[in-house]
Amino acid sequence: MAQSFSLYTETPPVVRRLYAFPAIMAVLGVFLWWMSTYRMTEMPFWAPWDFSPLWFIAAVLAVYWYGRGLARTPAAERPVLWRTVFYYAGIALIWIVLQTRFEYMAQHMFFLNRAQHVVMHHIGPFLIALGWPGETLMKGMPEPVGRLTRWRPLRALVAVVQQPFLAAVLFLGLIALWLTPPIHFRAMIDPALYTVMNWSMVVDGLFFWFLVLDPRPAPPAYTSFAIRATLTMLVMFPQILMGAMLAFAEHDIYTFYDWCGRLYPSVSAIDDQQYGGMIVWIPSAMMSVIALIIVINFLRQAEEKQWSEDDIENATGPIIASAPWTGR
After folding, report:
1. 65: in domain
2. 3 pLDDT exceeds 90?
3. 31 inside domain
């Protein structure tokens, strides 16, 4: 007994904190599951409506590994603050639409369901990709997980999925698939298919936006800046078309929401559908335009960096750094 106590007291504080966080999160996960299962009516709006251990684990690991990676990165090498803020904001938004009372609302109003999917497939993954967290996450992951991410078959699969044409087809195809009325109805009443729908939207959104918002030139990026800019426009117009078809439809296409009971009875089926169509139409188009601007800016930065390197390589006299007086 004395020996066990001695071993514990000699454990470094950092190691104790390392094991304390997962333990606290495990207890929190069990508590949230118990409350959402047996005390659902007592849960506040911001708490899980239908607690999902998978979403909880994914969110906890994404937050924990990134924070751990930041702590292991020298201050001078850490990502700029806005990237960290965007990364955490993307995770928070996905959590809000999937693990708060908003999920219940999205199951009872079509336009809220469309808002949920825009966050899952567009805004959340977009912000996470803009945070460009890969290097920081790798530093925070356990080594076996890091080795798994470097596993050749897995990397080959990612390379296939991120082929530009296939990436655009998957991005648009999944939106169209889950909007197909019979499939949408089935997904909303089948818990297993509903889970597949949500995971597919988030994962595909991450794959697509990480491809488009890669700040690096090719190589090492999979595609050139020109192709990435083209992708942003390629996926915009079909989404506008899908949204317009819903917004201007004159009959109720998604009968599930009448069948389960609409959250706001004052909103008619046609109005609900029109609002949903506008959400598919307008925010999606705006995201593509914003992505195009960001890609063009990444191109500008890459060209300026290349010009600076060429100037340094070809310089014959003293080199004067311009960063202090240009702000670059």
Report:
1. yes
2. no
3. no
Bin 214: left if φ > 0, else alpha if -120 < ψ < 50, else beta: beta
- Domain extent, residue 223, equals 44-306
Contact 235, 168 (CB under 8 A): yes
Q: How far apart are CA 129 and CA 126, in angstroms?
A: 5
Amino acid at 196: V
CA pseudo-torsion sign 140, 144, 150, 154: negative
CA atoms 313, 227, 121, 61: torsion sign: negative
Over residues 244-293, the pLDDT tens digits come to 999 999 889 998 998 888 888 889 999 999 999 999 999 999 999 999 99
Q: How many domains does the chain have?
A: 1
Give the pLDDT confidence score for residue 262 in this predicted structure.
84
The answer as to whether 11 is a domain residue is: no
Q: Is residue 328 part of a domain?
A: no
Say what the pLDDT of residue 195 is.
Answer: 95
Residue 250: both structure tokens together: 């004159």
Say whether pLDDT at 224 is over 50. Answer: yes
- Highest-scoring range by mean pLDDT, 171-185, 210-224, 312-326: 171-185
Return the SS3 of 248.
Answer: coil
